[in-house]
Amino acid sequence: MFSKQFCVESSAQQSERRFNLWDIDAEGLRSLPKAPPFARIAFPRVFFRMSEAVKSNDKNPEIVPHHAAEPDVSLGALAKLSAPIFIANLALMGAATIDTLMTGNLGKEHLAVVALGGATSVMVLFGLVGILQGLSPIVGHHYGARNYKAIGFELSQNLWLAILLGIIGCVLLLQTDFWTKFGGVSGEVARMTSLFLVFSAPGIFASIVSRSFIALNAAVSRPRVTMYVSLLMLACKIPLNCIFMYGWLGFPALGGAGAGLSLAVDAWLALICYIVIYKKDTFYDKMRAERFFWPQIKAVFAQLKLGVPIGLSIFFEVSSFTLMAIFISRLGTTDVSAHQIVGNITATLYQIPLSIAIAVCVMVSQALGAGSPKAAREITVRGLKVALAIAACSVAFMYFGQDFLLGLYSKETAVTSLAASLLVFGMIYHITDAAQTVSNFALRGYRVTMLPMIIYGVMLWGVGLGGGYYFAFDGTFLFGQPLRAEGFWMCTAVGLCLAGVTLSVIALWVSKVRVADSLAHGHAALKTKN
């Protein structure tokens, strides 16, 4: 689940018009579709302040959005856009899958090391890199305005911020005693986990700095660069693991801890690729800074103003699953190994709806920028239908192929038996998880971000983590005994189901409101002309 984080934004997203419910008069509000009853009760009106990108003058009915050619929101267009995104996401996810598969055969202790060390690294990484995403809308604006030289300046400021965040990430990961105690592990597992974190710390620095280039490539509509680099990283992962985990080429066999070292080498290889591509590819010639720039407070603050809210949203989403892995590690190697296996299976299958969601976000933004909220609603509905259909097929695949899937990861009966129980909860929430992901990203296209963040915090941290912790370690209220790992997965399933239903209803309502607003502007313009 931890890779649900980065929406590939196109420069067209920067040209959307601004729409605010606060600006609608009483008559306009009466003409809009009614909000869902739970939304009117549960959330104050302030949370429904929605904005897109170019300002409209609601006080002057003569000013109406310019309608460009109707955007292509067909199923073929959705598939064409989501396919390269899926490949890039799957390549990134594949590295975690390889680590799980290669350590599973070494024993549950090594698998526990990768689960705890990987969860800690991911939580630190995605808790920081989201802040850098403020670069994308800024660069997208300059790219759309053909102000290319400003792109190089903004990238330089983002890189200074990335270096600072990278140092913070390294320092956090090197607090190995804290993380092993927090995870409740000891003995050999604690020793190997500490080594994993020490080895991966330099890799976290490289990964954070790489995010500046990933944000740049997304903003200038070059996500294929990230896809190619991700595929290269995936190709290098197996030989690097063999060298550091199994002791090939005369290196010491580090077992599960070696996965952290291979992660670091892979991350630095990726960063070098991004730098070389940016320096050598002629596409970026006009975007490079003309001279060296030191950090400038005003520019850095402007990026933080956009990046911090995005980072908080990503942190809520990612940390809910990484903290679950850390808490489950307190229950023993069998529980954490089973959790790691099922989490990896569901996260891999999740990449399909995630890719669709990112594509929907881009297409919603493009449709709104073209002045076609009807097309935006159409792709929102179509994206939900496609994601739900594919998620249903994934659930069938997990149900009928669970013995084969679990056998790929481990041969220990205790681990696979518990994993089979956890997989049931994964099947339960997978469909609604797909729905909430597409809905959340569609809402980003509509520039509605505060409400989804609150819902994520309540459902994933409150219901999922809070409820899961209680039922995992206590559970006397309903079950009379602790449910261990099953308690976490049960509450996570409940939280994701609630989030899926809630966000889906809100996304559909917002898209309906946007169409109604467009029609109202059109009628007002006709009355003015007459």
Description:
There is one protein chain. The protein has helices at residues 26-31, 37-42, 75-104, 108-129, 135-144, 148-173, 176-183, 187-219, 223-245, 258-280, 297-329, 333-369, 373-400, 402-409, 413-445, 450-473, 485-529; strands spanning 17-18, 54-55. The chain is mainly alpha-helical and 530 residues long. Helix 8 packs parallel to helix 10 (258-280) and helix 13 runs antiparallel to helix 15 (413-445). The longest helix is centred in the C-terminal third of the chain and has 45 residues, at 485-529. It starts with 16 loop residues before the first strand and ends with a helix. Mean pLDDT is 77; it is low at 1-68.
Question: Key features?
Answer:
1% strand; 530 residues; two-stranded parallel sheet; mainly alpha; 17 helices; 75% helix; 2 strands
Short structural summary:
The protein is mostly helical.
Topology:
Elements: E1 17-18, H1 26-31, H2 37-42, E2 54-55, H3 75-104, H4 108-129, H5 135-144, H6 148-173, H7 176-183, H8 187-219, H9 223-245, H10 258-280, H11 297-329, H12 333-369, H13 373-400, H14 402-409, H15 413-445, H16 450-473, H17 485-529
Percent in strands:
under 5%
Strand order of the largest sheet: 1-2
The poorly predicted ranges are 1-68
Task: Count the E strands.
Answer: 2
Give the helix level as a range of percent: over 70%
Run of helices and strands: EHHEHHHHHHHHHHHHHHH
Q: Structural class, from helix and strand content?
A: mainly alpha
Mean pLDDT: 77
Q: Can you count the helices?
A: 17
| Major sheet attributes | 2 strands, parallel
Distance between the termini: 55 Å
General shape:
globular
